[in-house]
Structures are given as C-alpha cells and as structure tokens.
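Q: I have 163 residues here and want to know how they pack in 3D. Can you give me a structure?
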Amino acid sequence: MIRTLPIALALLTMTATVGAAEDAGLTRGQEVYVPVYSHVLHGNQGRGGAPETMLLSTMLSIRNTDAHAPITVRSARYYDTEGRLLRDYCEKPVTLHPMASTDLFVEHKDAAGGTGANFLVVWDAEAPVNPPLIETVHANFFGSIGAIFATRGQPVIPPGKSR
C-alpha cells in the first residue's frame, strides 16, 4: 500500500497539470477566421442607388504570444465575399520563434476580396502554447481622407480537433 501512494500522487499531479494547461487556454494549434474588408461602403447612395466605395489595404499580422515555444504557420488562405479561395499567402510553413511575428499584405488596389473577404490561418505547435494574436489592420490614406481600423481573428475549430 505504501508503494502505490507515490504513484497515485504522481498521476493526480500530472492530471492537475494537464487540466491547468487546458484551463489557461494553451493549445497545440487552431484554424483562425480573420475578417477582411478590401473595401468599405460609405456615404450616401448615388443616383444609381449604390453607396460610395473606399478601397483599403490590409495587413494580416500573426504574433506568437508564447515566450517559451515556437509556432508554425501552415497556411494563410485569402477568400472573397462568396467564399472562393483567391490565394494562399503562405507558400511554405513559417516558424515563428517565441514572441516573433510576421505579416502579409493585400494592396488597396486589390478589391477582389470584397466587403466580406477573410483569411483562414492554420497554425500548430509541438507543445501546448499561448494562442497567437492574429489581426488585420485596414488602412487608406489619400489626401485629406483617411481610414484605419483593425479586426481580430477567431478560432473556428476547437484546439486539438481537426476536420
């Protein structure tokens, strides 16, 4: 009986540690949906019934928020308003070291995405890590008119799950 007590305590400690990691939001990977606005509608409707359009550039920023472990970005697929894949900006996996970041850029003259464009970013890690911060920053500065705003990604597949 004395010999089984340390084993039982070790198992209890390991279970508590794993539970704590999951409770802290650590994960080994995700697919993250990130809204993109390649242009926005604004102003009043013109004679043709359509509002004015402002084209925007978009910078997708992927930031490894884990101070101890790298993550690998597997893909960053860009879709249009209709859900059609326009391109994958990540031709090969990119490793982001602890606290490192990378960005991808869509020019403001590229209006193919539309008002409902999005990125689907897939990343993973060898061990549970803090999820990265994945955002898009939209901007347009011409003359006296300017606009800048950010949108944040949202995981669409629970950590540890796959299709």
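Q: Anything worth noting?
A: The chain has one helix and twelve strands. The chain has a mean pLDDT of 84.
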